């Protein structure tokens, strides 16, 4: 392939690779990024080494890097290269320890690697990374409010370095003692499940919840991750079934700005199911989720909270508001979506946004539409795996 052909490669729904030659491959991921890989067999083992990212590493440079890496393989240590790069160690650990596990879990770990684990040390030797550098990375994640995420990223670092020690490529673990200087617990008001296994458990229990109207409210909360008050106050007049959109008027929003929610197929199915339930009961309420006490008022603020408790999740584990932080964590960790699109869908407007941006509720809409469908599919995928 020529550099022009490499540059012309377009992202698809799934990552794919193209062979350049002599074991050199170019990988294209859905987010549009491109990575150089060396893949070859030695001692009947398939070896895979990350060489760099395109276009930071040109085609010509990738060919040289490919040749250098082949020469650096130390056969006496069982395919462990001299001066092992951290990125190579990470992907080797992933292939051996993670790739064969449940698809939903392996995709989550892969997203964390791409988003958090690799960037600070992408071109570094694994043996040169110091404890203070790991601590700095973890603290920077916590400063963004992702406390649970920071501990999961630290866990990946620990596993990777211990794996390296087992390969005799490293002599010490730079994560030792790191846990002593970082925040160890989440604030209660941010309580939510984010681990794929816990999310799978939550979605499965919601799906089989015995009260259909409350089940629909919880599913709609999960798929749209809007604030609890916005969910229970949803009006049928706000739903555009033809465009698959939910437009929340400014007076019902915390920031007093119109908010647009692209509705996934799953969210639309929830609304259709809820509509049929109410029609069967001759309930002509203006509210999508009316109160059991009468059609003239919305569902109680405690209804979803009590339902979550009945599913076995305590207040320190999951709250009605927790669907928002659950979505924020999963979407950010996936590495597939821009932070701006995620924040806009969460109805977060930066304080220094100009007036036009602050009131443009359709900002980043094409990406948000794809993101909302991906997220609903992700949640359903976890539930199906469960």
Structure report:
There is one protein chain. The chain has 386 residues and is an alpha+beta fold. The chain folds into three domains: 1-78, Double Stranded RNA Binding Domain (2-Layer Sandwich); 83-185, DNA polymerase, domain 1 (Orthogonal Bundle); 190-385, Orthogonal Bundle (hpI Integrase, Chain A), CATH 1.10.443.10. It has 15 helices and eleven strands. Strands 1-2-3-4 form a four-stranded antiparallel β-sheet. The chain has a three-stranded antiparallel β-sheet with strand order 7-8-9. The protein has a two-stranded antiparallel ribbon with strand order 5-6. The longest helix is centred in the last third of the chain and has 21 residues, at 365-385. The radius of gyration is 24 Å and the shape is elongated. The model is unreliable at 74-80, 185-189 and 351-359 (pLDDT under 50).
Draw up the topology in text:
Blueprint: H1 3-8, E1 16-21, E2 24-28, E3 34-42, E4 45-54, H2 59-72, E5 73-74, E6 80-81, H3 86-98, H4 103-117, H5 131-143, H6 147-166, H7 196-207, H8 212-224, H9 228-232, E7 239-240, E8 245-248, E9 259-262, H10 265-280, E10 290-291, E11 294-298, H11 301-310, H12 322-334, H13 339-345, H14 355-359, H15 365-385
Number of domains: 3
**Radius of gyration over alpha carbons?**
24 Å
β-sheet strand percentage: 5-15%
N-to-C order of helices and strands: HEEEEHEEHHHHHHHEEEHEEHHHHH
| Unreliable sequence segments | 74-80, 185-189, 351-359
If strands are numbered along the chain, what order do they take across the biggest sheet?
Answer: 1-2-3-4
Q: How many strand units?
A: 11
- The percentage helix is 40-55%
* CATH fold annotation of the largest domain: hpI Integrase, Chain A
Structural class by SSE content: alpha+beta
Mass-distribution shape: elongated
**What's the rounded overall pLDDT mean?**
84
CATH architecture of the largest domain, please?
Orthogonal Bundle
Number of helices: 15
The separation of the N and C termini measures: 43 Å
CATH class of the largest domain: Mainly Alpha
Fourth-level CATH superfamily of the largest domain: Intergrase catalytic core
**Main beta-sheet strand count, sense and barrel state:** 4 strands, antiparallel
């Amino acid at each position: 392939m020529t550099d022009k052909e490499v540059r012309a490669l377009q992202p698809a729904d799934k990552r794919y690779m193209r062979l350049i030659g002599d074991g050199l491959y170019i990988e294209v991921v859905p987010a549009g990024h491109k990575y150089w890989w060396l893949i070859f067999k030695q001692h009947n083992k398939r070896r895979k080494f990350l060489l760099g990212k395109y276009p930071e590493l040109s085609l010509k440079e990738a060919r040289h890097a490919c040749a250098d890496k082949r020469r650096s393989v130390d056969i006496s240590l069982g395919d462990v290269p001299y001066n092992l790069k951290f990125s190579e160690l990470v992907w080797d650990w992933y292939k051996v320890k993670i790739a064969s596990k449940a698809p939903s879990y392996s995709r989550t770990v892969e997203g964390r690697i791409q988003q958090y684990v690799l960037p600070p040390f992408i071109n570094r030797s694994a043996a040169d990374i110091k404890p203070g550098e790991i601590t700095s990375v973890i603290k920077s994640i916590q400063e963004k409010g992702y406390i649970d995420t920071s501990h999961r990223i630290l866990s990946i670092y620990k596993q990777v370095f211990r794996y390296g020690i087992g390969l005799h490529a490293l002599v010490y673990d730079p994560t030792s003692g790191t846990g002593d200087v970082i925040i160890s617990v989440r604030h209660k008001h941010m309580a939510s499940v984010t681990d794929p296994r816990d999310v799978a458990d939550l979605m499965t229990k919601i799906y089989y919840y015995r009260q259909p109207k409350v089940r629909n409210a919880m599913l709609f909360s999960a798929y749209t991750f809007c604030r609890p008050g916005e969910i229970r106050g949803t009006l049928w007049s706000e739903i555009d079934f033809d465009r698959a959109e939910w437009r929340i008027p400014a007076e019902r929003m915390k920031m007093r700005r119109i908010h647009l929610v692209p509705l996934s197929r799953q969210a639309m199915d929830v609304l259709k199911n809820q509509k049929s339930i109410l029609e069967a009961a001759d309930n002509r309420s203006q509210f999508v989720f009316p109160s059991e006490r009468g059609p003239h008022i919305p569902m109680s603020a405690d209804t979803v909270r009590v339902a979550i408790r009945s599913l076995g999740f305590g207040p320190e584990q999951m709250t009605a508001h927790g669907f928002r932080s659950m979505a924020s964590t999963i979407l950010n960790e996936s590495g597939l979506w821009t932070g701006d699109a995620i924040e806009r869908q969460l109805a977060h407007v930066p304080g220094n946004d100009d007036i036009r941006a602050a009131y443009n509720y359709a900002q980043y809409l094409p990406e948000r539409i794809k993101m909302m469908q991906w997220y609903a599919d992700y949640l359903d995928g976890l539930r199906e795996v469960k």
